[in-house]
Amino acid sequence: MNGTFDVRTTPSFDRLLKKLASQHPQEASKTFAQTLAILKTDPYNRTRRHPIKKPEGVPPGEGQYRLRLRRWRFRYDIRGDRQQVELNFRGLRREDTYRHGYQERPAPHRPQNAVVLRSSEHAP
Predict the structure, then answer these.
(1) Is residue 31 helix, strand or coil?
(2) Any idea where the domains of the chain sit in the sequence?
(3) Which distant-in-sequence residues (6+ apart) come within 8 Å of 115 by Cβ?
């Protein structure tokens, strides 16, 4: 399929966009503009230049494709018969997304009478 796609949004996407744009004004507008440029030209990722995946088992209407731009996530559906992309969800990964439950581990315990040998002490 050549040509450009028409990109539309759902009401729930519009609400999320408004909320996230108020919290992250510069980053949100820049990321959204970049998303529109990608989805208008290559929503199927035929060029393999974009971080787009198609999660398994997601029915139409619930965001069959996912676009990842830095810490932003976009879910969308493609209606191939009309060359139309429908944005369903926009999410933001927090800085601590993968750090939950992370705790610094204490240093390994050494008995008080333990001797630590250095590599230079091994030489004859």
Answers:
(1) helix
(2) 6-92
(3) none
Length of the chain equals 124
Q: What's the mean per-residue pLDDT of the chain?
A: 81
Parallel/antiparallel/unpaired status of strands 52-53 and 84-92: unpaired
The pLDDT value given to residue 2: 61
> Over the stretch 24-34, which tens digit does the pLDDT of each residue have?
888 888 999 99
- Assign domain 6-92 to a CATH class: alpha beta
* Nearest CA among 116, 44, 114 for reference residue 83: 44
User: Which residue type occupies 113?
Assistant: N
pLDDT for res 1: 47
Per-residue tokens: 57: 């088992």
Which alpha helices (H) appear in the chain, and where do they start and end?
A: 11-23, 25-41
